[in-house]
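Protein in question filed below.

…
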Amino acid sequence: MDPFVLYLSTGNLHQSVRDKKRFMLKAAYYYLVSGILYRKTFLSTMARCVLESEIPTILQEVHSGECGSHSGSRTLERRILRHGYFWPTMKKDFEAYARKCVQCKKFAPLQHQAAQSLKSITTPWPFAIWGMDLVGPFPMAIG
């Protein structure tokens, strides 16, 4: 997030920026208010850009905190955006966090494949191929 802060505060591009046009298009979504970086979301609200050190705390609190419901990655994304937080790797972090949650793994419903009706297979040439199964010798049974 540092290149956006530098650009919005001074108007100068950070030296690590390679594609200036793409960076300028992305920078149009960011705002700097009292030294804090915000990003405009798709609902036209402002979400605070969080530091990397704050991400685990936010994920833990929203996913399994006091009011957390151990939701999946999409629901987790919506809740965190509704709470007003943003960081660039959100989707990847949500999926990884939801996959690693022990309680979610333990109590989540199992995914079952839907039952399908059996269909018999008809062959165009009956008895065209013969097969034989060889079994034995079997031990003698008592009695």
Remarks:
- The mean pLDDT is 83.
